[in-house]
Write a structure and sequence with these properties.
The protein has 252 residues and is of the alpha+beta class. Helices cover 31% and strands 32% of the residues. Helix 1 crosses helix 3 and helix 1 packs across helix 4. The longest helix is centred in the last third of the chain and has 19 residues.
């Protein structure tokens, strides 16, 4: 197994898109001339050796990132900024791309501006620090991994929230989500994918940082109050599951 050296690079969005296209051999003749300056950027930061030729290490890393069989997509929203962290876990290492977007200040929160820089990190380490750096600067969300005991995972009761007009339990999730969005200080969603066995498996979770603590929304639509470190524990748990899948597939 080939281990990646620890590397990181910041690329313009155009350079990132060109590198991904180069990995897929998806650059047509009409693009080559217009992409000359972008190739110069890739050459300047060591990702490419010359026009139309990515550095072998970076090509391998980008290929693993784009086509890797397992990983996470983490999206956090805080103070009008969305950070998307895509993490691929391969047999060779952990690969991460991070990009930021500005959102409009409305309920729809549409993207109004995309940061022109993409950060790409290659490491053999655990993905949690890479997830953590893209999270909102809120201690409960960024806390080191720690499982919330089942006895402390209390059902979130919308009827008890300030300003709630809900009178019955089991109210539609959309109404609960609307109430959470009014109070939320930060929000993080994680989608985990794993197709190491040849069959795609997906899992998703959503965390809300409220003024009085964290809540987690799972795939069963149950809304639970959880403790600081719950998000990190979820990343740790899913990472161990991915590593176990590699082991069962005979990949070391």
């Amino acid at each position: 197994m080939r281990q990646f050296p620890i590397r990181n690079v910041e690329l313009s969005l155009a350079a990132w898109q060109l590198a991904v296209k180069a990995v897929a051999d998806d650059i047509d003749a009409g693009e080559e001339e217009s992409a000359a300056s972008t190739w110069e950027e890739l050459i300047g930061c060591g990702v490419a050796n010359e026009v139309d030729e990515l550095d072998p290490m970076w090509r391998h890393a980008l290929t693993s990132h784009v086509r890797g069989p397992a990983g996470f997509r983490v999206r956090s929203v805080y103070d009008g900024i969305q950070v998307q962290t895509d993490i691929t876990i391969s047999a060779d290492g952990t690969l991460t791309s991070l990009r930021r977007r500005n959102l409009e200040p409305s309920a729809q929160a549409q993207v109004v501006e995309v940061d022109p820089v993409v950060e790409f990190v290659v490491t053999s380490g655990h993905p949690w620090p890479l997830v953590q750096r893209g999270l909102p600067p809120l201690p409960d969300l960024r806390a080191d991994p720690r499982q919330t005991p089942l006895t402390n995972q209390v059902e979130f009761d919308l009827r008890l929230q300030p300003g709630s007009s809900v009178e019955t339990p089991g109210t539609a999730l959309i109404e609960t989500a609307a109430m959470l969005d009014k109070q939320v200080q930060g929000r993080v969603s994680i989608i985990v994918f794993n197709e190491i066995s040849g069959q795609m498996q997906l899992a998703s979770q959503l965390w809300y940082q409220l003024p009085d603590g964290l809540v987690r929304v799972g795939e069963t639509s149950r809304i639970l109050r959880v403790e600081p470190g719950d998000l990190g524990y979820h990343v740790l748990y899913q990472t161990l599951g991915i590593q176990d899948s590699f082991g069962r597939a005979g990949v070391r």
